[in-house]
Amino acid sequence: MDRTYLELTDGASHKFYEVSVDDQTLTVRYGRIGDAGQSSTKTFETPQQAQAEAQKKLAEKRKSGYAEAMQGEREKIAVPKPARVPKLQIVGFTETTEPITEAITKFGGQPVWLEEPRWPLCPKNGKLIPFLGQIRLEPAIFGEIEAKMAYIFLGSDDPGGADGWPTDHGDSAVVLQPGNRVFTGLYDGDSSASDYIVQATGPTTTKSNSSVSVECAVQTQLGSDPTSYDFVQDDSGDEYCIQGRGHKIGGTPNPWGGDIHINDSERRLLQMESIDETDTPIPFGVYYGDGGCGWWVISSDGKRVWYTSMCG
């Protein structure tokens, strides 16, 4: 019997892979070092076919980092689970008939301010930017930061960011309270008085393809995302992400479209995607083409916010 034993050990893995060939029979055994593992057996028409398949499997494992080892030299260890990024997945929107007056996550209507109101102005024309919604900054998602609410404003004709770069057109803004930090476009730091006016109510988001204003409660589910994503290829050979879809608060952004300039010192405030058959439909006027996405990002210390979008 020919037997080859390989191991892979690094910070995230502590695994073995064993291939045995006995005449026409190929047996593969694999698992965590120190465990019995799982095994599978296949019989070929000739010993040569069994050997060829064994060499193919071993070559694939060596290419991925496995190397020859002596079974029993390494002891079983506890392998830490991969880090996860907490999120609230948005699973539904419910249009309300009465105004929401609590400081909770919602879209449309009017802001429920925690402090003196700060309504952002568009630097291009000085007009009030329409209110999109407010996000409660839960400590389980964003940690212990000063701000407890993020008020998001977005122009109805938002052009998005060309090729995924953050928009600097001034028709997107975020106000953080407590602290009353105002961020308009790419503004980085506390706002000056010219970026906003002290006004509690103003223009708000409307129903999709309508000029009628709308207010929606939000249904969420607590979950988590991986720190990075797996990709598969479609029939044309293009790679696309199979995780990270949908509208969510926190979590890891869907990296569709390439680099969206988010690093470990920044957190995901809100992700919203265009409607398709797998997403929760958006009942208000946010649209990024047939397959685009919008991201609002907050620094881990809660002192900077920016926005970018990609249109599909």
Count of DSSP E strands? 20
Strand content: 35-45%
What's the average pLDDT?
79
What is the helical fraction, as a range of percent?
under 10%
General form: elongated
Estimated radius of gyration: 26 Å
- Termini Cα gap: 56 Å
Q: What's the CATH topology label of the largest domain?
A: Hypothetical protein YwqG fold
- SS content category: mainly beta
Number of helices: 2
Largest sheet: 8 strands, antiparallel
The CATH architecture designation of the largest domain is Roll
- Compressed to H and E, one letter per element, the order equals EEEEHEEEEEHEEEEEEEEEEE
Strand order of the largest sheet: 12-11-10-9-7-14-6-17
Uncertain runs: 157-170, 186-193, 231-240, 257-261
**Overall tally of domains:** 2
Task: Provide the CATH top-level class of the largest domain.
Answer: Mainly Beta
What can you tell me about this protein's structure?
The chain is mainly beta and 312 residues long. The chain has helices at 47-63, 139-142; strands spanning 2-9, 14-22, 25-32, 38-43, 67-68, 84-95, 106-108, 119-120, 131-136, 149-154, 172-177, 181-184, 196-197, 215-226, 231-233, 239-241, 248-250, 266-273, 293-299, 305-310. The chain folds into 2 domains: 2-68, q64v53_bacfr protein fold; 84-310, Hypothetical protein YwqG fold. Helix content is 7%, strand content 37%.
